[in-house]
Write a structure and sequence with these properties.
By secondary structure, this protein is of the alpha+beta class. It is built from eight helices and 14 strands.
Length: about 350
């Protein structure tokens, strides 16, 4: 399962900098590049992705002094010129006491499951923080359950973990060597408990929460999507849940499937499920389709009629997404939610 919130996180605190105002940005770029290189070498990420650079005064975090996002990162060239140039801009503003420089990457990754190649557009994020007083913090987060001996619905998957967890353990060890610091596994999340070499064996210790996917991740995805929808008219939407079977059509952004537009068979429910393996684009692409469903409900369309009306149509707002013409059946909304989060 691919999640929108971390399944687990790990932290490192390298030696502090004597003069962060002079070398802070350069140190941050070096550490970020080193982390990415380790993940590539361990076969966890592809080397591409996107980066961000933010310099803030900690007394006014809501108004950064410098904020650059969605900087392309390409394989084979380290972090590329974009992140380095952005860090140079931050260095020009100067990393003084009470300021915080944050460099981060969203990294796609690939793995094999049951002999089939899979890909997630945000399998890991890495973050480097350099504080104006000299402290340095590195954070690695993962957004998949492929390292766990059971999935987020408590089904055993020891073969999946055996194929993937050793590479994660190797990366964590190499990052500790790179940073010359001890690893600090983060607190247990709603899904799993990190350890210095990965995660606890859930087949031995069991999950802390029953069906963490359905209990936590599905509502989190829905809330994230609805925060992005303008208008504040959720009362005009179709119902967001159903106990009935559903029909759905896939939503594409270019060649990539980013989500599913669905309608219930038997009640007044319809909506959009993001394909979390597609990353942030899955949520962004869903916004115009939620608005389209809202408009059709105002005009009196029942859910299945609304789905039919949108089949084969592109987003009129120009986002580039489009609904396919083929309709599929799912036994339940729960089954569709799981499908949208699995691959």
């Amino acid at each position: 399962m691919i999640t929108s919130e971390p399944v687990g996180e790990w932290f490192w605190e390298p030696a502090p900098l004597a003069d962060p105002a002079v070398g802070g940005a350069l140190r941050a770029v070096g550490l970020l590049s080193g982390l990415a290189d380790v993940l590539v070498a361990c076969g966890l990420v592809t080397g591409e992705g996107s980066g961000s650079v933010v310099l803030s005064d900690r007394r006014a975090m809501a108004s950064p002094l410098l904020s650059l996002h969605d900087i392309p990162v390409n394989p084979g060239v380290g972090l590329g010129a974009g992140v380095a140039a952005a860090a140079e801009q931050a260095a020009a503003v100067r990393l003084l006491p009470d300021r915080l420089l944050t460099l981060s990457l969203k990294l796609p990754g690939e793995w094999r499951e049951s002999g089939i190649g899979r890909r997630a557009e945000k399998l890991f994020t890495v973050r480097v923080e350099v504080w104006g007083e000299g402290a340095v913090l590195l954070v690695l987060s993962t957004y998949a359950d492929i390292w766990l001996t059971q999935d987020l619905r408590e089904r055993p998957q020891p073969e999946v973990a055996a194929d993937n967890a050793p590479r994660l353990a190797a990366a964590l060890n190499q990052i500790s060597q790179l940073t010359e610091s001890e690893i600090d596994p983060g607190d247990a999340t709603r899904h799993a408990r990190p350890t210095p070499d990965g995660f606890v064996d859930m087949l031995v210790e069991g999950a802390e929460y029953e069906d963490s996917w359905g209990t936590f991740e599905v509502p989190v995805r829905w809330k994230r999507l609805m925060r992005m929808v303008p208008g504040g008219s959720a009362a005009e939407d179709y119902e967001s849940s159903t106990e009935h079977p559903v029909r759905y059509a896939r939503v594409r952004l270019g060649e990539q499937v980013v989500g599913c537009l669905w309608a219930a068979v038997g009640d007044d429910a319809a909506g959009y499920e993001p394909r979390t393996a597609a990353g942030d684009a899955a949520f962004e692409a869903g916004v115009p389709w939620v608005l389209s469903l809202r408009s059709l409900r105002r005009r009196g369309f029942d859910p299945l009629a609304a789905l039919s009306e949108l089949l084969g149509t592109p987003d009129s707002g120009g986002s580039g997404s489009a609904v396919e013409s083929t309709v599929y059946a799912a036994a339940s909304l729960d089954a569709l939610e799981e499908l949208s989060g699995r691959y």
